[in-house]
Amino acid sequence: MNLVLGARVPVARRNILADRRRLVTGVFGVGAAIALIFLLQSLWGGFQVQLGSYAKNVGAQVFVGDLGTRTSWESSVVPLAAIDQIRAIPGVERADPIFLRSTILTLHARKVFAALVGYEPGALGGPWRISAGHGVQTAGEVVIDRTLARQHDIGLGDALEVQGARFRVVGLSDGTRTWMSAYVFVSREAAAGLYKTSGTASFILVETTQPAAVSARIAREVALTPLEVRELVRNDRKLIAAIMQGPIELMVLIAFAAGTLIVALTVYSQVVERVREYGIVKALGAGWKRLFAIVLGQTLVLAALGLIAGFGLSKAGGWLVIWLRPQFWLSLSGTQALQVVGAAAAMALLAAVVPTRRIARLDPASVYRG
Amino acid sequence: MAAPIGRRNLFAERRRALLGIAGVATALLLVLALNGIFAGVMRQVTKVIDESPADVLVAQAGVRNMHMVYSVIPAESVERVRAMPDVAWAEPLLYDLDAVVGHNGERQNSYVFGYVPGRRGGPSRLIAGAAPGPEEIVLDRLGAQRIGARVGSSIEVFGARWRVSGLTDGLTNITNTVSYVRLEDFARVRQTAGVVSYVLVGARAAPGALARRISTATGLSALTRAEFSAQERRAVQDMSTDLMRIMTVAAFAIGLAVVALTLYASTLSRLREVGVMKAIGARSGLLGRVVISQAVWTVGAALSLAVPLTFGLGWVVERASGSISLAVEPGSVVTAAVAAAALGALGALVPLIKVSRVDPATVFRRAS
User: Fold this and answer.
1) How far is A135 from chain B (nearest CA, A)?
2) What's the confidence (pLDDT) of residue B365?
3) Measured between alpha carbons, how far is B93 from B95 in angstroms, rounded to an integer?
């Protein structure tokens, strides 16, 4: 006669909690893997937010670039003559030109990638929040991001070399940084001088309460490409995703594999040490479903604790990252968080396979032999 | 001869040992893959410079590389440099970043170069078609493939339409592809009359000395090809260093946990034997060596597994993506080995403490 193991005996929980030191090491290991996944997702999310910060905050609703322009990373050249045409369109409240070019600054022997914005003082295109000093007023002045200034000990009144020319720092802006670049603001006149151009700009920024209608009129009446902010940000994100998402996903996949192996290793070690007890459970009539449930229960407990530890570790790691490198922003959406929870559950499920196979092969008679 | 107790203990439960080794190998794979992707990007981003025929590259003052930067110098600089002693040849190059767009709307970021066909500065070799004629463009094979273009196709760049006249190869990387048009077409559509981006210079004397002379005489930035390439690498490196560090620390933490788990589990399962060894006179040093030999075996086997795995992963990724190249360099293997050794040493700490605390009497108690 088969004896039925009381369903209420929390075997899984008792087994996994039996050796605290191993449990802590296992939880730390799974936590580290999950923290890496959380951190990667948060960094990616933060980067996505940063990518849209200029377009969303600069005060324009439509960016007008040259024909075919889709992103702010492409070099767009528009004639200044188009500004009057755009200003004449009904619904356009304001239209101002900007220069937008990527450049490399050398600060403390380190290359810093920057987006150089040349704007008309007092017009659209400049920094939207200044924490110290003021906006650019003359051609020899520059406004840089506050966090970049702090990292490189640059203060108001200091000199900064941009494209071989010296500028005086007159303001520090906020929210104008991404993890790989910083916005640097100069006057449009200065930017035109640096790039030896006249009569052109990179984009014309348009302020309007009717972005869709105004965009349609610009597309029809001016031989340029209008991009609503939403569309521009989406295109920018898509472009960067095409470059970076592959490597990030690869890292997430490896971290997932590592986490699964750690769960499997912890539970397997526990199974090996209590193999006699599992033999007794089998001898008492427990079927493979019950055995799998016991193992899965353990892997789930470990994955759940690892998830909590991983979340905590990623929070602590994130805090440390932001403290050390303020250019990094972290942002985790509900969907991303759910994906990590799903990943932890998948780890538990996959990790249960090897220990279950070990128990499945166990001969109950071996218990009595020993 | 001493019995290899550490190895025997570790492999007594093979599956557990393999899980441990696989876990550490995965953590090392994370580090190696990360470094490999980075090294691959490094090799790719400088390829267009490394393959340039120029001994010296002249750019706007303050500009020392090409990636994500824009250089503008007066067109007369070309003649000025050409007239200098020890200059074998000097050719203008226009450069900008834009997207090449296929007829189906597919886009690919591209470095676009304007050069004078028949002179230096164009593609080093063509695998199909010919150099660009008026309103024609040479694309890189992979870049062309991504936007569905071939020789004879019509594509869009700089807001103008171009006919693909030829294809070059090996210049598409994770961030962008490379395209070539005629200098005059570039200047016309970009409205850049009277300026060039770079001057490529062939040297009759030592390039370093010539670069310094050009810089002094013109006030422009002049670097040898090797220096320019190093600056390009540096720019990309400095952009990514912080992110790399974060991921490496996380990978290290994962590896540490796996090593500690593996060693702890195998030590725990052999505690009685440790007690026996202590009871018959084994000293702490010997028992410590047993644990350390397990650590060496675990991380050594993991490293031997991680390196070929990284090569395999590189092969798969390269075929799947076409533009992500994963280069395993000896330096990064050494780094991973050092990290693995550190992981082993740290991971062995807890088991060492456990072993040192084992009371030999427990053996007899449990036996009775």
Assistant:
1) 24
2) 58
3) 6
Put simply, whether A25 touches B (Cβ < 8 Å) is yes
pLDDT in tens, A94-118: 999 999 998 988 888 788 889 999 9
Smallest Cα distance from B1 to chain A, Å? 31
* Other residues' Cβ atoms within 10 Å of the Cβ of residue A69: 27
Q: Which of A25, A43, A101 is opposite residue B260, by nearest beta carbon?
A: A25
Residues of chain B contacting A163 with CB distance shorter than 8 Å: 60-63
Q: What is the percentage of chain B residues whose pLDDT exceeds 70?
A: 94
Q: In chain A, what percentage of residues exceed pLDDT 90?
A: 38
The answer to which of A183-197, A238-252, B91-105, B348-362 has the lowest mean pLDDT is B348-362
Which chain A positions have a beta carbon within 8 Å of B343's beta carbon?
A: none
Per the listing, tokens 């170069």 go with B113
Reported pTM: 0.76
Q: Is B190 in contact with B168 (CB distance < 8 Å)?
A: no
End-to-end Cα distance, chain A: 23
- Asked if B68's CB is within 8 angstroms of A103's CB, the reply is yes
Within 8 A of B160 by CB-CB distance, chain A residues are 67
Instruction: Give the nearest partner residue to B257 out of A29, A200, A358, using CB atoms.
Output: A29
SS3 readout for chain A: CCCCCCCCCCHHHHHHHHCHHHHHHHHHHHHHHHHHHHHHHHHHHHHHHHHCHHHHHCCCCEEEECCCCCCCCCCCCEECCHHHHHHCCCCEEEEEEEEEEEEEEEECCEEEEEEEEEECCCCCCCCCCEEEECCCCCCCEEEEEHHHHHHCCCCCCCEEEECCEEEEEEEEECCCECCCCEEEEEEHHHHHHHCCCCCEECEEEEEECCHHHHHHHHHHHCCCEEEEHHHHHHHHHHHHHHHHHHHHHHHHHHHHHHHHHHHHHHHHHHHHHCHHHHHHHHHCCCCHHHHHHHHHHHHHHHHHHHHHHHHHHHHHHHHHHHHHCCCCCCCCCHHHHHHHHHHHHHHHHHHCHHHHHHHHCCCCHHHHHC
User: B304 CA to chain A: closest CA distance, Å?
Assistant: 17
Cα gap B276→B21, rounded to integer Å = 27
Q: Max alpha carbon distance in chain A (Å)?
A: 96
Q: How many CB atoms lie within 10 A of CB B74?
A: 14
Q: Considering only the beta carbons, identify the residue of B243, B265, B324 that sits closest to A269.
A: B265
A179 touches chain B (CB under 8 A): yes
**List of residues 6+ apart from A111 with CB closer than 8 A:** A104, A105, B65, B231, B234, B235, B237, B238, B239
The per-residue pLDDT for range B151-198, each reduced to its tens digit, is: 999 999 988 999 999 999 988 887 889 999 999 999 999 888 889 999
Q: What is the CA radius of gyration of chain A?
A: 29
Contacts of B254 in chain A (CB under 8 A): 29, 32-33, 36, 255, 258-259, 262
Question: Mean of the per-residue pLDDT values for chain B?
Answer: 84
Q: How far apart are CA A122 and CA A184, in angstroms?
A: 16
| Smallest Cα distance from B245 to chain A, Å | 10
Which residues in chain A (119-158) have CB-CB distances under 8 A to chain B?
A: none
Q: Which of residues 254-293 of A touch B (CB under 8 A)?
A: 254-255, 257-259, 261-262, 264-266, 268-269, 272-273
Which of the residues B30, B227, B294 would you substitute to probe the A interface, choosing the one with the greatest number of A C-beta atoms within 10 Å?
Answer: B30
Q: Which of A179-183, A229-233, B240-244 has the lowest mean pLDDT?
A: B240-244
What average pLDDT does the segment A2-25 reach?
A: 66
Taking CB atoms and an 8 Å cutoff, what residues of chain A touch B242?
A: 179, 325, 327-328
Q: Report the residue from A36, A68, A179 with minimal CB separation from B250.
A: A36
